[in-house]
């Protein structure tokens, strides 16, 4: 898409280095001082807190610890803390304009430039020379997510503060340029083999592609003065982005989940915005239906408050980067996306809510804070959603409100990016509160993205709201998929329904001939949700289980009925046929901090198990408000 339209004319479209001014520099005091005083003081205060910061040591043994224990964050947290502190100090200096933070900024630059590698241990596997070694080879620079973020931060610091830094020593900015050229710019131009580029592989692209490319595009636009290299780099970026765009779903759905939208669709927006600004609007994809659909995905997956439908490696609670979402909504003229962003901004605003402080996002966001604060809107609360490619449906009781029942369900396959084995899975909320849930994912370890991924319980179908037959769970891979998928939504009878055959999501050893799951939501005077399983097995068995995950304590006192209630007074009644199945509950104590932050100390798994050997049957559970 980008290559076809713009590759041959890039030299006429992209601004030369000496004409590219995407943000006000430190010397542009009028623009920095035009920001709301409260915003400026907030960043200055954070800078004050950072004046005594002791830059943490990054030891070789910290790097090696990942390979010993599988702990992902020991090295990465220290490295990321350095970058966050540098970003805060740079912004504080630009806000205040007095030079008080400059010494610490120089310390941060020097520390980061002296790091042996900007690549974190789990990504060592993409090195050519060091893949089998546990410490990086400094003569084999390659680029991962963290190296890209580091590069963009240093390039932006150079752009904003070069005059001030040169006044202390010209070797500071010179060091930045040397390190970026050696570690990032030359390798990017010289290599085509890095998988996230998509240039020498048919592998499906994921968030790595636009995330890294957004940072590299920022680096070249801010620092590269040689026009030939500048245009070559931009051309290569758009070639890489085309590979990502080709792999995007036409319905705009993010199969990696809403947490990753910020670094998938959100990072693609970053790239397109940088290209738009660098070309004075002449490179423009914002009217493309795909780009608009990718933006709208976020409010289509929104349930209420910070709850989002969290299929794949996503948390049920997501603090979106509201200013990024707002800028996306403005650019594609989507009022609903802007409304979602403004609501999130008011309710959960934190200037550094993300784990990263990506400067080409953060700086533009500063200049829309006031506009967003003054916009009093609520989220769109879309009533019906159907994304036909990723096979995701959602329905709420009424449009424009989170009150009442909410249902989301998925078909798809088990070879998605950040996949969980969950074909036919669904979630149910009531008044914006979770009742039947997707657990999410634990803190990442070495096992998460290894061949042992599906040994982790949160990835397994037994801990999703799907059947298990003869003790056999769903398996991973594109071939384990829903078939005969049909969605319907009729306004006249207020019914939304998703039906699919999920038999192919299981291996032959499960003994399933057909398993048609139908998720129906009727919005009559008394709304109800029905999950119907119409199945036929190869042989009769009494080992048929329907699992349901919930954060509520199930009350099983009445045969055929389970009552679920939350601490807010919301409740759901779940009715099942006690002649066919028996209900049981299992307490699951949560030890992982990432899960505990969302669900508390424990969850429950409800099991509806067959009472007698059965070959074919039609089972239903009915959910109503209490």
Automatic annotation (TrEMBL):
Location in or out of the cell: Cell envelope
All copies of domain Heparinase II/III-like C-terminal, residue ranges: 408-571
Superkingdom in the source lineage: Bacteria
Annotated organism of origin: Paenibacillus aceris
Entries under Gene3D superfamilies matching the protein: 2.70.98.70, Chondroitin AC/alginate lyase
Main localization (coarse): other
The protein's name in its UniProt record: Heparinase II/III-like C-terminal domain-containing protein
Pfam families in the cross-refs: Hepar_II_III_C (PF07940)
